[in-house]
Amino acid sequence: MTNYSRRQFLGVLGAGAVASTGLSQQASAQETPVVKMGNNYFDPIGLHVEPGTTVRFEIAAGAHSATAYQNRIPSDASAFDSGVISSGGYEYTFEEPGTYDYYCIPHKTVGMVGRIVVGNPGGPAEDSPIPDGDVPESDAIVEQGAIVYGSSTGGDGSSGGGTMGPGMGSGPGMMNGRNGGWFEGLPFVGGALGLLGLVGGLLYWALGRGDASPESGDSSMETLQRRYARGEIDEAEFQRRRERLETGGEIESQ
Fold this sequence. Notes:
Oligomer: single chain
Distance between the termini: 142 Å
């Protein structure tokens, strides 16, 4: 093989390697991100993609939907809606940059919500917290690329201030930034304990009065008879005191 032929061969080989690398990178860039829809959750709950990316919402368990809030997507975007599905998946291509908040129709009330940031954050979703649950802050989503369901990004990582999860942003007793959590119940608990203490005290007082000496309301004759029956005085003393009582006198106490 001549030197020229060798150079041609090496050139073709190198060009093929470069082309192969370019095709591999392009295929990698075009991989479809997948959001799993499980028992009351989207995973990842926060996802960052570039404009023109197709995202697949895929059933992991149960029956769910991926439905955009019409008032929480970029103004030039169309609202996507998979409808309720129980198998397979749904794909949507995000063309317009901005922030997209979405929810599951059957499980919206228990906080099954998610957020996708396309390119840079923006749009109505950035103006107020999501109403039906918690999603990560858009800046955290862009920085991390994807935030898995159930993770906590701290006080600045969630639009609701709590751990990501369905129903964990607004229910009573939850420790998050939008309510007082368990501590709000302390005055009620204290009042209940105080009432129980008062009732217990009244019962103790009533039972104590019931245990008082039965002699307190008895007549002198009844008292004398009981003392004799208990052997505290002999028969002679009993007769002497009884005669004294019958004649209208008082008996001296011993």
